[in-house]
Sequence to fold (266 residues):
Amino acid sequence: MAVLDALLALSRYSQGGDGPMTRPETFFGDDFIPNDIHIGCPGSSEDDEEKNDASCVLVTGPNMGGKSTLMRQCGLVIILAQLGCYVPAESLRFTPVDRVFTRLGASDRIMAGESTFFVELRRGTATYDGTAIASAVVKELAEKICCRTLFSTHYHSLVEDYANNHAVRLGHMACMVENECEDPSQETITFLYKFITGACPKSYGFNAARLASLPEEVIQSGHRKAREFEKSTISLRLFKKLCQFAEDATLGNTHFASLIQMLDNL
Fold:
């Protein structure tokens, strides 16, 4: 009876959509926003074709932007598909998956506007150690194990390290940033919940802090300190690139342009 009950549940779910591939019912007037995920297969654009062998997707984006939801969806869709059930997608092409490993936080309260600051790989250690560990994990997964991976991170130095690595594809949850004054700490973020190519420029953590009702003076103090850290980090990266430029005379205008951009950001 239990097996029959499960099969009937899958059948009812599969017949509940409005097309050959079903999608979940929407509530509270929300729109369904489709997101394309290509892992280890050719994509539809020229940029996708260049990294058609990438098995690892490095996912960035603001807090509450939909990163965890996107990753959960991918895992659940694969499980549903291998159960023989229709999935909430316009199309799905995949090779069989023998297991799914996850490391996700589950204490978000999105309906209440609350997101978890969940630190995955650096908890209990220093920031630089955490970045190094995360980088080593990405390298192992992408270049040696070669399993299909969705790796969410707020380490933007990690994104820079793998920007030109053909085993890693970059993607982020899109958002729209508005600021009616010159104070960057007063940015207003609108989440678009759309997964697009490339890396998110920053995590917009102060927006999440404001949504969590932290005192404004605490946010302003944190923003000043963050700016100091950012300048220090940019200076170190600039020094590293200058050393590379001095040692390798073949580096062209692209490398030089990145140096100019770093100087502008100081």
